[in-house]
User: Which sequence fits this backbone?
């Protein structure tokens, strides 16, 4: 047993943002700086994370932190790029990240993944700062020393104007998302306003200020949260990987307690929690040695929170990213039940809903939440690639609007692609949830329009025409006359009636500009042939004629609400005509 005592762990810092906005470059620069700044052994390279000790931060920040002392041991950066790592780092439905960086290319502004990252940060209520990267790419920007305020003021007037314009755009977009933000040096209360730190991950400008702000905010607002009990380790699976010579391994973030290389652990899986024995705890070699490909990892006896670690254990095939890890104690049954609860995602299932597949528990949760907000029913939600069975299940859904699969950051297996060719299933396969939902919105609008059109074809539609007296091409057998469609539509095969309800004949043919047509809509002037009528007897010029609709069709058209305003007006007139003789017609 590990004796229980409190200690302060380093805060977990997650970097979110759009692809290519510099997430990796920022962490590479910090790692490069720390290698250059550290004394031997002062920096630790973890799996999926880089630990920057407080002494190294003092060195990088220099005068910025002169005279200041922190109780934090340092910062732990999660270096899996994008928001995938953030949603994967889960604990009881929330994020493990203590503080986050929302990285934005100052020249490009907000992109789909930036919006999505902001939404996720708000959802998890994670404190964050905005880093405006790539200031060096602003035309005419000159690198100078000193703090941001001075460096901005030292730029040429036109360069300073460009910079300020781009910052105001970022501030405006954040404001549209109901949050206040400003350049960090203008802020007096970081609880009310989000700080924006301009940096260049390429030249290093602003990075000392970034580290200063992160340490300062963590010390001031998170110290209580960062005080944790030592004891059996708790963590989250970041990735499941196949390693040469090791087989399946898991990369994990340990956020509480201690984990040892001979511990028994419990891990969440796609089914029942797995109880397994650790074969080895592995860490990458130090940063300046990791280029040597002969030995990528070193074995360690134990690690303490917060850190990243690779775990080699048997039977890891069904382990999923985002699943909890616990060191097994004598209360193993309680631990198993707790992990079951954490791995289970509660949502209402519907046989006529869509199928959702994702790469991690966190991504799955995010997609379910987005879908529910749009009122989308869900038939099944699982982690893993799209299989043939998924296609078959999706095809079993009767609702045409739900013959869908949302596939986030996963593959569509070959047999699934083969099955897909024989169905009407639509798959939205993306690595950005925002894009999946955008594509869905576009698709659903088109699909509804298609369904409405096909529904229209099923029923005889309301139409109202006026007989144009100057266009009588044949008096009878059949009568051929010119008409204007005053409202609704007319088609071949429709019966016509007068405004007293008397049937005058059936449309046998239609022409426009001497070409046969099947349908005419409001505003068109066309020639029609009518069987069973003689011009001058049953009909004459200026007569208003209506399509004769069966009562059942009229009722369905009114109930389905598939008509436009003009067609509804004509339908109401037909109801009036029919109910002169039958007051319950169409009910």
Assistant:
């Amino acid at each position: 047993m590990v004796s229980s005592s409190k200690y302060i762990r380093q805060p977990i810092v997650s970097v979110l943002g759009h692809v290519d906005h510099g997430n990796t470059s920022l962490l590479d620069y910090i790692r490069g700086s720390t290698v250059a700044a550290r004394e031997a052994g002062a920096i630790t390279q973890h799996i999926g994370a880089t630990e920057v000790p407080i002494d190294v931060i003092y060195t990088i920040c220099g005068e910025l932190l002169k005279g200041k002392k922190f109780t934090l041991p340092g910062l732990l950066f999660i270096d899996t790029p994008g928001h995938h790592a953030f949603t994967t780092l889960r604990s009881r439905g929330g994020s493990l990240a203590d503080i986050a960086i929302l990285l934005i290319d100052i020249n490009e502004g907000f992109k789909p993944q930036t919006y999505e990252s902001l939404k996720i940060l708000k959802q998890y209520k994670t404190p964050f700062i905005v880093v405006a990267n790539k200031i060096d790419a602003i035309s005419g920007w000159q690198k100078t020393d000193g703090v941001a305020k001075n460096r901005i003021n030292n730029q040429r007037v036109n360069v300073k104007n460009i910079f300020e314009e781009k910052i105001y755009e970022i501030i405006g977009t954040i404001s549209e998302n109901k949050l206040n933000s400003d350049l960090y040096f203008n802020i007096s209360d970081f609880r009310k306003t989000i700080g924006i730190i301009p940096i260049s991950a390429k030249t290093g400008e602003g990075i000392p200020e970034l580290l200063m702000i992160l340490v300062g905010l963590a010390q001031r607002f998170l110290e209580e949260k960062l005080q944790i009990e030592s004891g059996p380790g708790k963590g989250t699976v970041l990735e499941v990987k196949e390693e040469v010579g090791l087989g399946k391994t898991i990369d994990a973030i340990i956020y509480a307690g201690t984990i040892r290389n001979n511990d028994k652990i419990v891990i969440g899986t796609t089914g029942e929690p797995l109880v397994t024995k650790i074969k080895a705890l592995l860490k990458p070699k130090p940063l300046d040695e990791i280029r040597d490909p002969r030995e990528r990892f070193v074995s360690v006896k134990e690690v303490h929170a917060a850190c990243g670690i690779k775990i080699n254990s048997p039977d890891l095939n069904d382990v999923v990213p985002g699943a909890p890890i616990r060191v097994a104690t004598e209360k193993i049954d309680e631990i198993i039940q707790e992990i079951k609860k954490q791995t289970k995602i509660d949502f209402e299932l519907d046989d006529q809903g869509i199928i959702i597949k994702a790469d991690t528990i966190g991504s799955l949760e995010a997609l379910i939440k987005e879908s529910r907000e749009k009122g989308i029913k869900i038939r099944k939600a699982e982690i893993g690639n799209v299989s043939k069975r998924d296609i078959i299940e999706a095809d079993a859904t009767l609702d045409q609007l739900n013959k869908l699969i949302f596939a986030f950051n996963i593959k569509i297996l070959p047999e699934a692609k083969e099955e897909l060719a024989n169905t009407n299933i639509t798959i939205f396969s993306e690595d950005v949830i925002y894009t999946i939902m955008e594509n869905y919105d576009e698709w659903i609008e088109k699909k509804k329009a298609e369904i409405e059109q096909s529904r229209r074809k099923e029923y005889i539609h309301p139409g109202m025409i006026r007989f144009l007296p100057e266009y009588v091409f044949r008096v009878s057998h059949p009568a051929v006359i010119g008409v204007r469609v005053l409202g609704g539509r007319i088609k071949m095969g429709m019966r016509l009636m007068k405004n007293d309800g008397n049937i005058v004949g059936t449309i046998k043919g239609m022409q426009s500009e001497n070409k046969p047509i099947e349908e005419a809509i409001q505003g068109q002037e066309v020639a029609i042939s009518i069987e069973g009528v003689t011009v001058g007897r049953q009909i004459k010029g200026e007569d208003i004629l209506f399509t004769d609709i069966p009562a059942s069709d009229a009722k369905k058209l009114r109930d389905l609400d598939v008509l436009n305003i003009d067609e509804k007006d004509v339908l109401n007139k037909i109801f009036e005509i029919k109910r002169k003789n039958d007051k319950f017609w169409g009910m």
